[in-house]
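Query form — protein Head-tail adaptor protein

QUESTION: What is the three-dimensional structure of this chain?
INPUT:
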Amino acid sequence: MPIDWDAAVLAPCHNDAFGEPATFLPAGGSPLSITGIFFNGYNRNVDLGDGADVITVKPVLVVRAEQFVSRAPQQNDGLSIASVNTTYVIRDVKSDGLGELRLELHKVSSP
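ANSWER: The structure tokens for Head-tail adaptor protein are given below.
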């Protein structure tokens, strides 16, 4: 019998354990209240191709894809994270193939 990964794993992690409120601000659309797991200092190792690596630090919000019923998040959409009172623009969207999206962010404004 197949497992409903979203119901069994993602929903409890995002809604009950680690998630926090955010507002999705689609370009040309209406704001949507969502829940995600926010990492203010996500480290990413980038291979420069010449044997050298660089570690970049950027904010990331991990969200359940099922929250976006009208359209999925895209590059240049906005996102507001309440816990840090900051607005971001989405730089990139990565899917894990199991119902979770990693939104790589760029800070636009904060108080």
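ADDITIONAL NOTE: Strands lie at 20-25, 32-47, 53-64, 78-81, 86-95, 100-109.
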